[in-house]
Amino acid sequence: MANTNPFSMSTMFNALPELRFAPAREIINEEPPAMDLRWMFNFMTRSEDVPRFKELISVLDTRTLMWMASSLTSDSNYFMVIARNQYGSKSIQRLMGMSDDVDVFFFEAIMRLFLYVMTDKYASYVAIKGMRVFQQDKRELMYEHILQNALYLARDQHGCIALNEIITDLDDPYYRNQLLDIVANNALLLSNDAYGNFVVQHVLKLRDFRCTRNIADNLCGHCVELSFKKYGSYIVERLLEVGDSVMELVVMDLLACKREMLMRLARSEYGNFVVYNALDLTKDILTADLFYGLVRKLMPYRHLLRRSPGSKIAAILDSMPVPN
């Protein structure tokens, strides 16, 4: 099948000789330095030139840095072919944060190509760097784009990684809470997605109780279903580990399912970890009712659990008398 991605490496590299660049901004009135664009591409994208590039830009004046930024970003293809390269991405990031006048070029390029940038393995780090070094007004515009596209990014192979980085970095309370709410309110959709589940797991690691409780509420009634799946079981286990009311919600989900379903879950490849942790974490006297509720449902099947992935569950059941 033909490659339809306009920013594929092969398509863009072949197009380099044909690129035509828009005039530099009017503020750059003097003749730009004599740097060939193909030379600049090679210089920025080769691993052996990374130290030299860092040294070069450290001695350039603002006018020259602005010319470089303008040349890099005036054509979307040229910008993307460098940003999508591992070393090209790092080179662009080195230019960012040196001057607000330079940053404006990169900001405009990122916003123009937002989803292309955010869903690329290496280009996404250019956007992440921008959210760390750009002025507040530019960062807020980028945050708005993140909120609008959060679910799309969360379900993309590289977008989910970029989104997790942004969630970790976000220190603006308004945008942080907005983004966490999007994840929590769509927890079921994301938990069932191959990439979205990583975002839910990441948010749970932040230990933001309000968000964690919202995730638990939105997954209520679905914990058994999720526990049969590899990554879904990780999410349910993390909710159990939170303790208190969040743990109770999960255990109540387990208790609400039919006895045969709970037995199947306890014997399954991933669900056995969920059931074992539920038993282990409810042994405390304050949650004894939940613990014995699970024991009563599982005890008739302990002989089946001994020769299955649920052998650790059987060990717990064998260690105690059958409750009345």
From TrEMBL:
<keyword id="KW-0677">Repeat</keyword>
<dbReference type="GO" id="GO:0003729">
    <property type="term" value="F:mRNA binding"/>
</dbReference>
<dbReference type="GO" id="GO:0006417">
    <property type="term" value="P:regulation of translation"/>
</dbReference>
<dbReference type="InterPro" id="IPR033133">
    <property type="entry name" value="PUM-HD"/>
</dbReference>
<keyword id="KW-0810">Translation regulation</keyword>
<dbReference type="GO" id="GO:0005737">
    <property type="term" value="C:cytoplasm"/>
</dbReference>
<dbReference type="Pfam" id="PF00806">
    <property type="entry name" value="PUF"/>
</dbReference>
<feature type="domain" description="PUM-HD">
    <location>
        <begin position="1"/>
        <end position="321"/>
    </location>
</feature>
<keyword id="KW-0694">RNA-binding</keyword>
<feature type="repeat" description="Pumilio">
    <location>
        <begin position="218"/>
        <end position="253"/>
    </location>
</feature>
<dbReference type="InterPro" id="IPR011989">
    <property type="entry name" value="ARM-like"/>
</dbReference>
<protein>
    <recommendedName>
        <fullName>PUM-HD domain-containing protein</fullName>
    </recommendedName>
</protein>
<dbReference type="InterPro" id="IPR001313">
    <property type="entry name" value="Pumilio_RNA-bd_rpt"/>
</dbReference>
<dbReference type="InterPro" id="IPR016024">
    <property type="entry name" value="ARM-type_fold"/>
</dbReference>
<feature type="repeat" description="Pumilio">
    <location>
        <begin position="181"/>
        <end position="217"/>
    </location>
</feature>
<keyword id="KW-0963">Cytoplasm</keyword>
<feature type="repeat" description="Pumilio">
    <location>
        <begin position="71"/>
        <end position="112"/>
    </location>
</feature>
